[in-house]
Known about the structure:
Order of helices and strands: EEEEHEEE
Number of helices: 1
CATH superfamily: EutN/Ccml
Strand content: over 45%
Distance between the termini: 21 Å
Structural class: mainly beta
CATH class: Mainly Beta
Number of domains: 1
Number of strands: 7
CATH architecture: Beta Barrel
Amino acid sequence: MELGKVVGQVVSTVKMEQLAIGKLLLVRFIDEHGKAAGKTQVALDTIGAGEGEWVLVVRGSSARVSINNATPIDLTIVGIIDTVSSEAGVLYQKSESA
């Protein structure tokens, strides 16, 4: 699993039927401090993440298996993060307005 931040949406009214089980979101990979740590990619979201939220994402075969192993996806949101902490303290705390 990797950390990501939802930075937008992708709207596609014409798509494969299997993709209709969720919405498509733009996710930027981040480090534990919220700084960009990779490319922005499109992820399938079936759990209701929103823009600005930190999320857990899985790639490749893990992304497909997390849905049904037949959906043609490479990135899936599998969790919405509430808190990230380490021995240095709280690194991220979800706000009520996110």
